[in-house]
Every structure is written in structure tokens, then in C-alpha cells.
């Protein structure tokens, strides 16, 4: 059994890790931390887990965490990087759902996250946890940086086009829409029901923290610099991300059968589903599932290809992808514990 610790078990990604891991056949949850809820039973705070878990929350303690095989950090940025050196030295593997190790350029990270990085020397050792891109490196990773929720949808949507060199790399556009759980569980006036319901807005238009992460990933795929306009939006739904991606086709792109390109690219991927031509994905189809559904269209047979991509921000955008990576890291079937279809209605 894989002995698992979770730091940040009271947040939305933390409780999603719990929901999925309690029925994972190869996992024993050993430790779940929360500073605010230390001492309280997990199923008292989350009655949905009654009968599934007997543990209580405890304060984070690196020595106790180091007794686990793997520790998930479902914490804000600037938390994992304080513990990672100790855990790695003890031989404990780390899956970090936060942004601490996602960006290779430490100065760029410090600029966007407004912090000094606590262990810049370890950033180069971190493997970016997008299995569709880095599967082989993930298998041997000691330190895994899980992608952000928007970056997962945007990279999966653009990847087949960039990998095959079918679009202009300097004029990419991503309009992405998130449900409110993307902002986490902490109390904020902006996230009150009365503020977000029956409304829709763009935010961080001048620059979102996920922009450098997405640009880094897309440049790796394209094999050279790219330029992206990324506009996130908030929609009155609990879970889900819908990304609408635009790219200008080059000569090779105009000549290609793009539906065939996408289907071939993702044919062997268990968690990326290319819809048949003419269908468009909906967030409701992937609620609770580790699936990213994609569709592509060239409106009016002109030069712009439009890709629409959906995922559950808490599953393929966070906890599900983290478990997919853990499965790879421990030599298990990649789909173990995360193969459930979406919840409907
Ligand atoms: N929500 C989403 O859709 C996604 C989130 N992420 C990333 O995952 C991480 C967690 O997000 P989310 O679950 O939404 O966050 P939440 O705000 O919902 O939860 C944060 C958790 O971290 C704990 N925590 C906060 N500060 C510390 C600290 N200094 N030391 C130890 N524990 C701490 C909190 O518990 P306590 O304070 O009691 O210790 C709480 O359990 C973030 O980095 C986020 O950016 C990534 C992809 C998607
Ligand atoms: C709706 C909403 O507020 N979403 C969050 C997503 C942030 C996130 O999860 O980002 P990191 O993992 O990089 O911290 C936001 O836009 O800030």
C-alpha cells in the first residue's frame, strides 16, 4: 500500500483528494493536516466522508509527514517549498498541487508570486505533472509540480496543433472560464453567493499568474517562443473550466485534417476525449471525472481554428491529475481510483 499524507485537507482540492483516495485500492491515508481544524475528525467537518475515513486532522509536522511514501500539498503557494527539502532528504516523494515548483525560471516565479523562493536549487528537479506531455519523467519523479487548473485545459487544447506545427505561435488566444471552487475554500467577499451568482466577469485581464506557466508549457511543446493572450473569467458554477482557444492556421494547418490530427494525438490517452466533429464539450459532462473533453472547429472554413476544452478544475485540474501522477510514480495503473465518469445531472 502507498502511505499517503495530505497537507491542507480542509481545502477544496484537499477534500477532493480525500474523496478520490478513500476508494483507491492501493492507498492508505496516514495523515491529513489542517492548522485550523487540528484535532477534529475529518468526517465531522465533511459528513460526505462518514464511513470512509476514521482519521482526524492534525497540525502539519515534517517529521510525521516524512514517514509517508508520498505527501500531497493541497496548500496555497509558499507552503510546500518550506517542507520539500526535508521530505525529499527523508526519501518521501512530494506531489505539490500549488505553484511552488511549476515555473523553471525562479525570477519569473518570484515576480508573479511576489515571494522569495525558499529552495530555488530544487526547482530544476521538479517534474511538471502533465502526463500527456511528461509521462516518462513523471514515473521517476521525486518532486512533482502539478499543473494549474487553467494551464491543464489550455495546454491540452493547444498541444496537438503546436506539436505538429500547424498554427502561428505568436497569436494564440485563450478565453477560459472557471467555476468558483477554483478560488479555494477560504472566505472572501468576492466569492459570496450574492456576488457571483447570476453574474459573469473577466478578471486579471492585464495578467494572471497562470500566464507564465501556460507560456512555458506551450513554448516547450512548440519548441520555441510563443505568445498567448489569456483572459480568465468567473462563472456562477461550483466546478468546471471551459476554455475557448483560438489559433491562426498556417499552410500546413490549412492542409491538415485537424479532427484526424487531434484524434490520433490523443488516441491512447485515458483522460483526454476528443469529441466527434460537430459536438461541443460541456462542463457538466466532466463534473467529478478526471477527463478533459475537447472539440475543434474551423468556423466558416477560414484561417482560425477554435478548440473548446472542458475539465473539472478540482479533478483533471487538480486532485485527479495529482493522483494520476502518483499512480505513475508508484508504478500503478495510471487510471487506478480515478476512472469514474462524470456526475449527471
Ligand atoms: N481550487 C482549485 O480549483 C485548484 C487549486 N489549485 C491549487 O491547489 C492549492 C490548494 O487550493 P485549494 O484547495 O483551492 O485551497 P483552499 O484555500 O481551499 O485550502 C487551502 C488548504 O491549505 C491549508 N493551509 C493554508 N495555509 C497553510 C500553511 N501555511 N501551512 C499548512 N497548511 C496551510 C488550509 O488549512 P489550514 O489553514 O487549516 O492549515 C487548507 O486546508 C493552491 O495552491 C491552489 O492554487 C490548483 C488547481 C485547481
Ligand atoms: C476562479 C479562481 O479564482 N481561480 C483561481 C485559480 C488559481 C489557482 O488555482 O492557481 P494556482 O494553482 O496557480 O495557485 C485564480 O484565478 O486565481
Automatic annotation (TrEMBL):
Task: Please give the pathway this protein is involved in.
Answer: Amino-acid biosynthesis; L-arginine biosynthesis; N(2)-acetyl-L-ornithine from L-glutamate: step 3/4
The Semialdehyde dehydrogenase NAD-binding domain, residue ranges: 3-141
Task: Give a GO molecular function annotation for the protein.
Answer: N-acetyl-gamma-glutamyl-phosphate reductase activity
- InterPro entries registered for this protein in UniProt: AGPR, AGPR_AS, AGPR_dimerisation_dom, AGPR_type-1, NAD(P)-bd_dom_sf, Semialdehyde_DH_NAD-bd
The cross-references to SMART domains, in alphabetical order and at most eight, read: Semialdhyde_dh (SM00859)
The catalytic residues are 149
- Top EC group: oxidoreductase
A Pfam family assignment = Semialdhyde_dhC_1
Q: Does the keyword Amino-acid biosynthesis apply?
A: yes
| Catalytic activity, EC | 1.2.1.38
Q: Where's it found, cell-wise?
A: Cytoplasm
Q: Which keywords, in A-to-Z order, does the entry hold?
A: Amino-acid biosynthesis, Arginine biosynthesis, Cytoplasm, NADP, Oxidoreductase
The UniProt entry, under Gene3D superfamilies, shows:
Dihydrodipicolinate Reductase, domain 2, NAD(P)-binding Rossmann-like Domain
Which reaction(s) are listed as its catalytic activity? N-acetyl-L-glutamate 5-semialdehyde + phosphate + NADP(+) = N-acetyl-L-glutamyl 5-phosphate + NADPH + H(+)
Q: What does this protein do?
A: Catalyzes the NADPH-dependent reduction of N-acetyl-5-glutamyl phosphate to yield N-acetyl-L-glutamate 5-semialdehyde.
Can you tell me which family this protein belongs to?
Belongs to the NAGSA dehydrogenase family. Type 1 subfamily.
**PANTHER family for this protein:** N-ACETYL-GAMMA-GLUTAMYL-PHOSPHATE REDUCTASE, CHLOROPLASTIC-RELATED (PTHR32338:SF10), N-ACETYL-GAMMA-GLUTAMYL-PHOSPHATE REDUCTASE, CHLOROPLASTIC-RELATED-RELATED (PTHR32338)
Name of this chain's protein: N-acetyl-gamma-glutamyl-phosphate reductase
